[in-house]
Structure formats: structure tokens, C-alpha cells
Design a protein that fits this description.
Blueprint: H1 7-17, H2 20-33, H3 37-56, H4 63-83, H5 93-99
Helix pairs in contact: 1-2, 1-3, 1-4, 2-3, 3-4, 3-5
Length: 103
């Protein structure tokens, strides 16, 4: 699989991936035909963050605190995508890149 390196296109797709589950699906489909390395990076980050937030929502008592932490990680990721920089989210980012490397 070859990756396209156009940062502008990748940046737009990466930002779209941050806008709810629907945005992530749209970004995934947009990136499916011509893979963009930057977009794929943030598609993997967002999938991981969405799944982690879902798991955190089932944790009684601490769930809302953990979801606030997920929001902070989302903001860090969004800023990285907006600035055109690959920023791993703290703690979990490397795992997301490894677990979802096929995306």
C-alpha cells in the first residue's frame, strides 16, 4: 500500500476525523482510496480515543473524570491535526498507532 504525502489533503481529512463518529467515518472513506500518511495517523488516533471514551463511559463513579481526560486528549490531537503536526496523544497514542496500523 502506498501513501500519498500531500499535507494539505491529509490535514483536511485529519480535521474531519475529529468531528464526531460521522466525521471519522467520512475521513476513513476519504482516505480509503488514496492513503495519506498524515490522515491515517489521525484516523488511528481518533479511533483509539473514541473506543477509550466508550470504555470509560461504562466505569462507574470515575467515568466522568476519565471522559474529561479523553476530552483533553481529543483537544491535544485536534490541535496537532490543525497545526499539521503528528502529535501522539499522551500515554495511549503509541498503542493506538500500533493496534490500528492496518488503517
Amino acid at each position: 500500500m502506498s501513501y500519498e504525502t500531500n499535507l494539505s489533503d491529509g490535514k483536511n481529512i485529519a480535521i474531519i476525523a475529529h468531528i464526531t463518529l460521522i466525521g471519522w467515518i467520512i475521513a476513513f472513506v476519504m482516505n480509503n482510496n488514496i492513503k495519506n500518511e498524515f490522515a491515517s495517523f489521525y484516523i488511528r488516533q481518533m479511533l483509539g480515543l473514541m473506543l477509550a471514551a466508550l470504555v470509560c463511559s461504562f466505569v462507574p463513579v470515575l467515568g466522568w473524570i476519565l471522559n474529561l481526560a479523553m476530552l483533553a486528549l481529543w483537544i491535544i490531537s485536534f490541535i496537532g491535526a490543525f497545526e499539521g503536526q503528528k502529535k501522539l496523544v499522551p500515554i495511549l497514542g503509541e498503542y493506538f498507532q500500533d493496534w490500528f496500523k492496518s488503517l
